[in-house]
Structures are given as C-alpha cells and as structure tokens.
Amino acid sequence: MTFETVSACPICSSEQFKPLLVTRDYSISKTEFTLQECVNCNFVLTSPRPDRNTISLYYQSANYISHTNKGNTLIDRLYLVARTFTLRWKYKLVRKHKPGGFVLDFGCGTGAFLQYMKKRNWIIAGVEPSQTARDQASENTGTTIYSSVSSIGKKFDVITLWHVLEHLHDLNKNIQELKQHLEKGGILFIAVPNHNSLDSKNYGAYWAGYDVPRHLWHFSQQDMVKLLNKEGFKIIDTVGMKLDALYVSLLSEGYKHPKKSSFARFVKAMISGVKSNLSAGRTGQYSSIIYIAKQV
Ligand SMILES: [Zn+2]
User: Fold this and answer.
1) How many CB atoms lie within 10 A of CB 241?
2) What integer best gives the mean pLDDT of the chain?
3) Averaged over 168-187, what is the pLDDT?
4) Per residue in 61-113, pLDDT tens?
5) What's the pLDDT at 67?
6) Cα–Cα distance measured from residue 148 to residue 104, given in angstroms and rounded to the nearest whole number
C-alpha cells in the first residue's frame, strides 16, 4: 500500500494547501482521509491519497454499484431504476448538442450508456481501467473496450465522463489526451459532484459525494471553469442532476445514522434531496452538475 501527497494544485500550480475536512471511506475501508484546500484558488482535493497501484484496493467490493448490475439492497434497487431513467435523460442531452456520430464513454463501467447509445445508432467506443468491468462492458456492448485512451487511434464527436473525472490521478494529462481525441467542433460532457450543494453542506463530512479515497478531486463550478479554460475548453452549458441529490442524500443519511431504520433514513434523505434541488433552482448549486464544453 503506497500513499502519495499531492504536490501541486492541478488548476493553479500552487504548492500550498491547508486541511479542510477529515472524512471517511464509508463504503470499503472505513478509514479516514483528509481533504486539503489550495490556499491560492480554493480547489479541494484528497491528500494524502492511495497511488495509482494502491487505489484499486479501494474498488474491490461487490457493493461498488457502478461496477455491478445487481440490486441487492433498497438503495441499489432504487439506483438501478434511477439509472434507466438517467440513461434516457443523458442520451437526450447529448442529442440536443450532437444529433449523432461517434461517441467515446471514458470510464464506461459495465457499458450501460454505450449500449443505450448503440441502440440509437451511435458508433460507440469505451475506455475502462477495471478489467472486470471492461470484460462485462465488452460483452454487453459487443464492442472492444480499451484500458486507456492512448490505445485508440480515432477521433470522436462526443466524449462523455459520467462521474469519472474525480477519479483520475493524472487530471491535466487525461484532459489533454481527451482533447486530442476530440474532432474539431466535438463536445465534452463531464458530470461531477458539487461540494457547494445544499446536500453537501447539510451532511458535511458524511456527504457521500466526497467518496474518499476514490474521489481524488472535489470540484466547485469555479474550479471547473478554471480547469477547462486552462486546458483549452470553453463551457457552453451546465445542467444540474436532480436525482443525484436524492441518491447522494440516501447514502449520506446511511453514513450519518447507520442505526436508524431504513424507512426513517429514506424519509430524511428525500427531504434533504428535495430541499437541495429547490435551493439549487435558485442558486444553480446542484448536488452534481454536467459541464458541456467545446474546444476554444
Ligand atoms: Zn489552486
């Protein structure tokens, strides 16, 4: 097990950080991790963090729902229902900006989004680092899924990262690589949690959107603007993900009150999620946000 400290801010290159919050890996290791804030630009990151080789240990769980299609608990079953709804919603959002073409889903998990896009006549490609998920995705989509983007010699009309950017060790390098794989006029869709949402403020260290140590970076809207501008992109639209406020509140409620009945937690989580969405309707601070960007 090797841990590393982040030496420089990927947004402003500052080397000065201050501790912001101690939170916990509630789903797998149950150990504590510290969130650090960049003194210069306020970007929040997990540091120290497991290095590239060690991080895989923190994904090895049948409970890591992104990599499984089985609904064992109430939360998992709700997640799967919401995912079907969300696939359709994401497809419509992509179609609004590009009517069709070649799509790369970077961090495609077991390939559900690609399967959906393929059925609607998109040409698909996927990248997924986990071999188990990659094999499953290949089977589900009938397409070769790559372990990294550098092994793909094609360019895409659309590249999607659905809750993936926050997991990448080489943040700047990965965005640059993706930029090289985007056609002129191609569009990038990036969904990430937003720690300035009301549900984040409500749950604090128990907020499931921190999901340490798997989430290495914790983005605000200002951070995403600065990061994407730095890498040569312009954000053309942002869209709130309203279901995430409900789902993240449900997980957070479980972390904060593990001994309460699941019904009591469910009710409290729904109230938290609805409040977060109502507040975000005014402020734009949704629990998770999709950033839609084009090359400058
Ligand atoms: Zn910074």
Assistant:
1) 24
2) 94
3) 96
4) 554 545 455 567 777 787 788 888 999 999 999 999 999 999 999 999 999 99
5) 44
6) 12
Q: Could you tell me the distance, in angstroms and rounded to a whole number, from the CA of residue 18 to the centre of ligand 1?
A: 11
pLDDT at 55: 94
Q: What pLDDT sits at residue 8?
A: 97
User: How far is Cα 65 from Cα 44, in angstroms, rounded to an integer?
Assistant: 25
CA contacts within 13 A on the Cβ side of 226: 14
- Please state whether 113 falls in left (phi above 0), alpha (psi between -120 and 50) or beta: alpha
Query: Cβ neighbours of residue 214 under 8 Å, at least 6 residues apart?
Result: 25, 55, 58, 59, 167
Percent of the chain as helix, strand, coil, to the nearest 5 = 40, 25, 35
Give the Å distance between the CA of 242 and the centre of ligand 1: 28
Give residue 80 CA to ligand 1 midpoint distance, Å: 36
In tens, the pLDDT along 123-172 reads: 999 999 999 999 999 999 999 999 999 989 999 999 999 999 999 999 99
216: DSSP letter:
-
Q: Looking at this protein, which amino acid is placed at residue 57?
A: L
Gap from CA of 7 to ligand 1 centroid (Å): 11
Question: From ligand 1's centre to the CA of 14, what distance in Å?
Answer: 5
Q: Kindly give the distance from the C-alpha atom of residue 45 to the centroid of ligand 1, in angstroms, as a whole number.
A: 10
Give the closest residue to 34 by CA, choosing from 46, 52, 26, 16. 46
Regarding pTM above 0.85, the answer is yes
Distance from the alpha carbon of residue 227 to the mean position of ligand 1, in angstroms: 10
In the chain the beta strands, taken as DSSP E runs, fall at 3-4, 17-24, 32-38, 44-46, 49-50, 102-106, 123-127, 145-146, 156-162, 182-193, 217-218, 233-240, 288-295
Q: How far is the CA of 226 from the centre of ligand 1 (A)?
A: 10
